[in-house]
Design a protein that fits this description.
The protein is of the alpha/beta class. It contains 8 helices and 7 strands. The chain has a 7-stranded mixed beta sheet with strand order 2-1-3-4-7-6-5. The radius of gyration is 18 Å and the shape is globular.
Length: 270
């Protein structure tokens, strides 16, 4: 039942009015600062741990993976983006979530406790054999993976070569806009390219490298079940991380929130 217990029309209307007035970013910033000040000072984010071993209905789980080139690529925007998106989930969907992030290695058996998994900056991902096995088993068991924030031809080729090690038998395909994932709570009629903070506050460009056009692709199993959503040439996580900043355009943060909420609801209802 909780999957459809979205906030009442009155609360939703108030939220939309605040957003339209440009006050939604101020409200989110005040709320996030109060929560984040004590949390960040109390923990070392380089040592992710489970903050709530039992209880919450949903964990925003971030994938910890091996990479080459840049160290700890998995931790870009971490933990602020995760925490702020949890605040959004708590206020827009009537489900219980923890206050803090939940980062888990792909080869950790605990991964299968969490049906939703987020991975970003996969343009230099380099999976170990154990990570390939862990991710494959997780997804075939019903897990759901959201990929975000990688750009251009070269990074696509790196990611594609690694995900083919996980699923050599399943192709990567475009997800059409009439797919249910784009209409879980919010109706997505256009895929918007979401830029990083620096590009957004300068007014553009919205792209990086040669990633001029955003795309949402997916991997389906042989029953037609969507296991992986791939957001290419866009950066939803930066929009979650900087949603409280007045210089970050509301157009991008609102779209990123809508996409993220749809992904969460889809993952927990399919």
């Amino acid at each position: 039942m909780f999957l459809r217990r979205i906030l009442s029309r009155r609360v939703a209307l108030v939220t939309l009015v605040l957003l339209s007035l440009g006050l939604g970013a101020v409200w989110a910033g005040q709320l996030s600062r109060e929560r984040l000040r004590g949390i960040v000072s109390a923990r070392d984010p380089s040592k992710p741990t489970l903050s709530h071993p039992a209880g919450p209905e949903f964990y925003f789980t971030r994938a910890v993976y091996n990479s080459y080139g840049r160290w700890r690529s998995w931790a870009v925007d971490y933990p602020k983006a995760d925490r702020q998106f949890l605040i959004v989930i708590r206020n827009l969907i009537d489900i219980d979530v923890p206050d803090t992030e939940n980062a888990v290695r792909l080869d950790d058996p605990k991964l299968r406790r969490f049906p939703f998994l987020y991975a970003l900056e996969v343009g230099d991902i380099l999976l170990s054999d154990a990570e390939v096995k862990g991710l494959r088993e997780y997804l075939l068991a019903g897990g759901f993976l959201v990929i975000d924030d990688f750009w251009g031809t070269y990074q696509w080729q790196v990611f594609e070569s690694e995900i083919l090690r996980v699923f050599p038998e399943y192709p990567i395909v475009d997800i059409p806009l009439d797919h249910p994932i784009f209409n879980q709570v919010y109706k997505i009629e256009e895929i918007i390219q979401v830029p990083n903070l620096g590009n957004a506050q300068r007014g553009g460009p919205t792209w990086e490298r040669d990633g001029y056009y955003p795309a949402v692709k997916g991997i389906f199993d042989d029953r037609g079940h969507l296991m992986v959503v791939i957001n290419w040439n866009t950066d939803l996580g930066d929009a979650w991380e900087w949603a409280e900043r007045p210089e970050y355009p509301l157009k991008y943060s609102a779209f990123a929130v809508e996409m993220g909420i749809n992904f969460v609801i889809y993952a927990m209802s399919h």
